[in-house]
Predict the 3D structure of the following.
Amino acid sequence: AQKITQTQPGMFVQEKEAVTLDCTYDTSDQSYGLFWYKQPSSGEMIFLIYQGSYDEQNATEGRYSLNFQKARKSANLVISASQLGDSAMYFCAMTGTASKLTFGTGTRLQVTL
Amino acid sequence: ETGVTQTPRHLVMGMTNKKSLKCEQHLGHNAMYWYKQSAKKPLELMFVYSLEERVENNSVPSRFSPECPNSSHLFLHLHTLQPEDSALYLCASSQGPRPFNEQYFGPGTRLTVT
């Protein structure tokens, strides 16, 4: 079975600052994928970034980077230079050999002026 | 039209009604999914279709009935729902469902059962 834990129900960050959203996972699969999604108030889930369990380098996509620490089973999302439009719910998710995507409970990020 | 679209965006229905949710993907994917998102709960996978065949049904009550007539369209037929079925229903698609392929989501249908 897979499990995703997001311990921060809410986070605040000032505009232009960096913020880290925490995610830990648990799985018995040797090979798996980790994802982050953003969900604005409109409801749509927007794919942000992917990290494979065998990828040696941390994934980056623009202002998003994934701090992957395999031994600690953590996959934290780092958003650099926060913008007001980054205010949203952020979900960490994973999939393993069963191809089932398991989501965490999410972190609500609020970017302030 | 690009991406994944869902209609209607909002739906209010009584417990005795029958309605359908529609999802369409324009990404050339061959796997489609239905998820339920309730307040303060993780997204729950309901159904998975791969190449128009249902490959997963996560113990979903029979009052939810999926249909996938082709790889671009997915329906969720609803009948005799309960108030606890009120939620955001999200459709997604991927090139798969091979492992590790990201899923692309539609905007969701917010369902209220009265």
Summary: The longest strand of chain B covers residues 18-25.
